[in-house]
Amino acid sequence: TFDVEQAKKWIITFNDKIQENKEYLTELDQAIGDGDHGLNMARGFQETVKKITEGKYDDLGSLFKDVGMTLIAKVGGASGPLYGTAFMKASLALKGKKEVDIKALVEALAASLDGLKVRGKAQVGDKTMIDVWEPVIEYMKNHETIHSKELTDLSKEKMDDTKELEAKKGRAAYLGKRSIGHIDPGAASSYLLFASLAELLE
Ligand code: ADP
Ligand code: MG
Ligand code: MG
Predict the structure, then answer these.
(1) Pick from 96, 98, 172, 94: which is nearest to 131 by CA?
(2) Residues with CB under 5 A from ligand 3 (ion)
(3) pLDDT class for 76, splitting at 50, 70, 90?
(4) Atom 26 of ligand 1, residue of closest alpha carbon
């Protein structure tokens, strides 16, 4: 099962990974964007962790709502509203739930993915975070038991696969074919998000 404590742990672990990889995410975004993805994510999730460690939550919905609202408020750029939307959608799906089984968590994350796609209008293959999110959610939907290592490996593989793609959405799309040969920064941060979730399932 997945409860408020585990959800907090997920966000805290993700923030740790973001802070550790801040320079790396910055370098990726320097290659095909404006070089702020590391900073945007590091600032946003630092604020988010501060908020949720100070807060008391009776249910997963109110916790994820605070996560989403903090990201929308504190993170500029494309990634703030996108990650914010993802957590707001999960919050709606988990409203009033103290704890859920993994299946319900996956359903909430599927709602997050739908929200991301509506908000950003990107499809698989456009070289964005969707290239990690969609196959990962598909994998989790289709497996009764989710293996931690499979989840991590799949997210990493999908992140790596963005290297060969030409960007069709976001700032990198302005580069056209010159975006080929670089991993998408948002796909890289999304890999860290799912790797953090995988650690909880170990
Ligand atoms: P900005 O590009 O505004 O500076 P960030 O650098 O923080 O914002 O985030 C860039 C990342 O956001 C990209 O690497 C990509 O994964 C993601 N992204 C950008 N536009 C979209 C979109 N329309 N749909 C999905 N993801 C997107
Ligand atoms: Mg950027
Ligand atoms: Mg920017």
Answers:
(1) 172
(2) 34, 36, 77
(3) confident
(4) 128
Query: In terms of Cα–Cα distance, which of 8, 41, 56, 63 is closest to 200?
Result: 8
Crossing angle of helices 22-32 and 4-20, rounded to 10°: 60
Q: Identify the CA nearest to 189 among candidates 43, 37, 1, 31.
A: 37
Identity at 195, one-letter amino acid code: A
For residue 26, what are the CA distances in angstroms to 6, 97, 123, 167?
28, 36, 24, 18
What pTM was estimated for this model as a whole? 0.98
Ligand 2 center from residue 174 Cα (angstroms): 13
Query: What ipTM does the predicted assembly reach?
Result: 0.99
CA of 83 to the centre of ligand 1 (A): 10
